[in-house]
Design a protein that fits this description.
Layout lengths: L2 H15 L4 H12 L10 E10 L3 E7 L6 H14 L3 E3 L10 E7 L18 E6 L2 E6 L2 H20 L4 E9 L5 E7 L7 H13 L4 E5 L1 E2 L2 E2 L8 H5 L8 H13 L3 E5 L7 H6 L28 H17 L4 E3 L8 H5 L1 H9 L5 H18 L3 E5 L12 E4 L3 H9 L3 E4 L11 H5 L18 E10 L7 E10 L2 E9 L4 E3 L1 E2 L9 E8 L2 E11 L2 E8 L2 E9 L16 H4 L2 E8 L9 H5 L2 H10 L7 H17 L4 H10 L9 H8 L2 E2 L4 H8 L21 H14 L3 H15 L2 H10 L7 H22 L6 H16 L4 E2 L1 H15 L1
Parallel strand pairs: 2-3, 2-4, 4-6, 8-9, 8-26, 9-12, 13-14, 14-15, 15-16, 16-26
Antiparallel strand pairs: 1-7, 5-6, 5-7, 10-11, 17-18, 17-25, 18-19, 19-20, 21-22, 22-23, 23-24, 24-25, 27-28
Helix pairs in contact: 1-19, 2-18, 3-4, 4-18, 5-7, 9-12, 22-23, 22-27, 23-25, 24-25, 25-27, 26-27
């Protein structure tokens, strides 16, 4: 047995012992709901009553695939099926032989002319599994590749359940959006070609079709330049991709039907350029390599003609390496200080009648766009590149959210959404899944009647780093009962909130939830003192204190909601990208940070808009979590290897893995901010702590929440399953404390273990009372809730996520 097989076995044992018999529960759910363990879920699935036996030997027949892709496809399907226990044979079976057949037929056997994928390439396919065999039909290679990905998922999902048959089914499928991307930052932490290719494999499995490769930034220049060699020689710490390596990655992606869009950041995020060629900068001085995270001042000098010569030559090199029609120029977070303090730049602005730094950047972008057009390329960039003078075919990628993207689309520019898909932030798959690009919201706030009362509170949420988040809570009440509420955060529009009356400690506590750019956001505000608001905001699993005061002169007419896009403008939103910035990501945990969550994002971008059921999504994600590992992703392996690397050899880590089920990395940018306060917010800080190997969300806790939902729906077995899990956790605390005492790398989590044990004891007390039918009295409810709140106030890089679950358990047991 290989090390990975052994690790996977440990995970499976834990999964089953949790009562995460989820594999089997999910299978029943799929059967009942006529659903399959696929992500993204196809547009049309017609299940037939019979099953198809997949034999150990499989004949794979290809007709019409592009000649450049023939051998690759054959090798890929052979490798994938081998991992799943099947052998591909090239010899067609005799009529007497019992052998499974996979026929991949493109355009009725006629070779498709286009080898490279482009924006709006046809990606449709049909997958038929009948008693006669397996047929994948497509108009071109790209649809065929997606059909193979669907088939591989079906086989892997059944194999994870030790099932060798496949459902007989007819699937007709195509993407909802043409641009479905994953951005990986190779600057802040360098990612090897081998690891990049593995993520490309994952993208193909998830039907993502654009790899956005972030290659230059303040902390390094990551590709070899022939025309400006000091860039990779002086500004890369010898960690860069040779041109041959880039061609290799681009070729590999192309074989998978994935476009590669390079990002070359100008005019800001230019500290690495400044190290190599300071004469191109606005402030001409000697620069040193920047290894801290954040936004820095060095800017290219827009008044210097040599800057445009530089950009022209770099773009020429990029076009020789990357065949895609788009080049991403970054363009975000320009700190204008150097421009404002430069006499030459100020004179240049006056000569060109430019009023401010914003207009200057727009002017600069126009020049860059002209250079790109000369090389037959289109401009792509972050929100800040948007300006009306640029041609309509530029692509604007929004990190500022729907407020910005709506304006871009309404002005007939093409746009992509990345806000809500930032996977460097630990966030739940459910949050990403709810992040609908073309949502239909209420266009206006409810108009209060004469018998309604309007009140409003202003509040502030201080952050650990940077400016505080400021907000306004506007409420409409009738007969002292709150009926509507809206929240405005910073300069965004108001959002209607979902009121949550659960577990309020007194009548004047207001609980609400919204999805903000920070993540799933829960406010718990105490309004009992008319002069002062107190409480907390939960950003995912992270606790932030809030304070504020009532507004005496609030004008309800100012409650304006973000308008929905007109149908004519919706067509300008072409899709979205998951983004992975690598301040806290290394080669050792990159898969763990991307997968399996990105399958949920991929589904939002591929599947029908009607795919909204969070519980169903998680049912399939649980199986994808295992089957994706079977197909070669390393997220489970990195979790296990990371934990194992923190202890001495031969140490049993079962109790540590059980502890990990109760914890999550602190959500939002809490870890970044804590590291900043500890002077660990830089490249030199190691990413080798327990928190670095925790999944972004505990799927065990997700499953327990589903069991709790089942109990609230009348299924007492759900509560018993929760108790079983908590008992199992209880059995591991003594052992894990012994391990931490013997292994110095775990010394920092001792207090976490004690707090987790306290939470689990409270949870078991609540659950046992619930099972026995004993209702918990209000004073005891308040005592437990306050105890849980106090434990959660201690903001750390590791969140006691089990405590938030126990809060929900307490509410369920209080009301049932």
């Amino acid at each position: 047995m290989t090390l990975f097989s052994h690790q996977l076995s440990i995970i499976k044992i834990i999964v089953i012992s949790v009562g995460l018999s989820f594999m089997f529960c999910a299978q029943q759910a799929f059967a009942q709901e006529k659903s399959l363990a696929l992500m993204p879920y196809p547009q049309s699935v017609k299940l037939l009553p019979e099953t198809y036996q997949l034999t150990e030997s499989v004949y794979f027949n290809v007709q019409g695939i592009h000649e450049k892709r023939q051998l690759f496809i054959q090798q890929r399907i052979t490798s994938q099926l081998a991992k799943l226990g099947h052998q591909v044979t090239k010899l067609p079976p005799d009529d007497s032989e019992m052998m499974s057949k996979i026929n991949l037929i493109i355009n009725q056997g006629k070779t498709h002319e286009n080898y490279l994928a482009k924006l709006n390439s046809d990606e449709s396919y049909q997958l038929k599994i009948t008693s006669q065999g397996i047929d994948i039909l497509a108009n071109n290679d790209f649809g065929a590749l997606h059909g193979l990905a669907t088939l591989s998922q079906l086989i892997a999902a059944n194999r994870s359940l030790n099932i060798t048959t496949l459902p007989q089914v007819v699937i007709n499928d195509f993407p909802r959006f043409p641009w479905r991307g994953l951005m990986i930052d190779s600057v802040r932490h360098f990612i090897s070609v081998k690891a990049i290719k593995r993520q490309l494999d994952g993208m193909a499995a998830a039907k993502l079709n654009v790899f956005h490769w972030h290659l230059t930034d303040d902390q390094g220049w990551r590709f070899e330049s022939k025309s400006y060699p000091k860039l990779h020689k002086l500004a890369s710490d010898r960690q860069y991709y040779t041109q041959q390596e880039i061609k290799d990655v681009v070729h590999y992606a192309s074989q998978l039907g994935i476009r590669v869009v390079p990002e070359f950041d100008v005019p800001g995020h230019a500290s690495a350029i400044a190290v190599a060629y300071p004469e191109l900068m606005t402030e001409k001085k000697r620069y040193s390599m920047e290894d801290a995270w954040g936004v820095f001042e060095p800017l290219l000098d827009p008044s210097n003609p040599d800057v445009y010569v530089f950009i022209d030559k770099i773009v020429a090199e990029i076009t020789s390496l990357f065949p895609d029609e788009y080049i991403h120029i970054g363009g975000d977070e320009v700190d204008p200080v150097q421009w404002q303090e430069s006499e030459a730049v100020q004179q240049y602005m006056a000569d060109n009648k430019l009023q401010d730094s914003h207009e200057l950047q727009g002017h600069f972008n126009e020049k860059v766009q002209t250079i790109l057009a000369k090389h037959q390329r289109k401009m792509m960039g972050w929100d800040e590149i948007y300006q009306p003078k640029l041609p309509k075919d530029i692509m604007v990628q929004s990190w500022r959210g729907m407020e910005s993207l709506s304006q871009i689309a309404a002005n007939q520019y093409q746009g992509l959404l990345s806000t809500g898909f930032y996977i460097d932030q630990p966030q739940s798959s459910a949050y990403h899944y709810r992040n609908e690009l073309l949502s239909k919201r209420e266009n206006s706030a409810v108009i209060p009647s004469n018998e309604d009362t309007v009140s409003a509170w202003q509040f502030t949420m201080p952050r650990l780093k940077g400016s505080a988040v400021k907000g306004t809570l506007a409420m409409v009440s009738r007969n002292n009962y709150l009926i509507h509420a809206y929240v405005k955060l910073n300069n965004n529009h108001y959002q209607k909130v979902q009121l949550d009356r659960q577990l309020a400690l007194h009548p004047r506590q207001i609980n609400f939830t919204i999805d903000s750019w920070m993540g799933p956001t829960r406010g718990e505000f105490d309004l009992s003192d008319p002069a002062q608001l107190t409480g907390r905001m939960l950003i995912g699993n992270s606790h932030y204190n809030v304070e504020g005061q009532q507004l005496s002169d609030f004008d309800y007419a100012n409650v304006k909601l973000l308008a929905n896009l007109l149908p004519a403008h919706e067509k300008n939103i072409l899709g979205g990208e998951a983004t992975l910035w690598t301040e806290l990501v290394s080669e050792k945990n990159i898969d763990l940070r991307i997968w399996p969550r990105t399958f949920a994002i991929a589904e939002r971008l591929w599947s029908a808009k009607s795919m909204r059921n969070i519980n169903q999504m998680y049912q399939r994600l649980f199986q994808i979590n295992i089957s994706a590992a079977k197909l070669g992703l390393h997220h489970l392996q990195q979790h296990m290897n990371g934990i194992r690397g923190l202890v001495f050899p031969e140490t049993k880590i079962t109790s540590l893995v059980m502890l990990a089920e109760q914890l999550e990395p602190a959500h939002y940018y809490t870890r970044h901010h804590l590291k900043f306060k500890k002077d660990q917010y830089h490249q030199r800080a190691g990413l080798n702590s327990f928190v670095d190997y925790l999944p972004a969300e505990s799927l065990t806790l997700v499953n327990m929440q589903q069991q709790l939902n089942a109990y609230k729906g009348g299924d007492k077995a759900g509560l018993q399953a929760i108790v079983n899990t908590m008992r199992r956790w209880h059995s591991g605390y003594e052992e894990v404390l012994k391990i931490t005492k013997k292994n110095p790398k775990l010394s920092t989590i001792t207090d976490i273990i004690y707090d987790a044990r306290t939470i689990n004891t409270l949870g078991l007390t609540v659950a046992h009372s619930c099972l026995a039918g004993v209702k918990i009295r209000t004073p005891e409810v308040k005592r437990i809730k306050k105890h849980l709140l106090n434990l959660h106030r201690n903001v750390r890089e590791i969140s006691l996520a089990s405590g938030l679950f126990v809060e929900k358990l307490l509410e369920a047991c209080r009301t049932h």
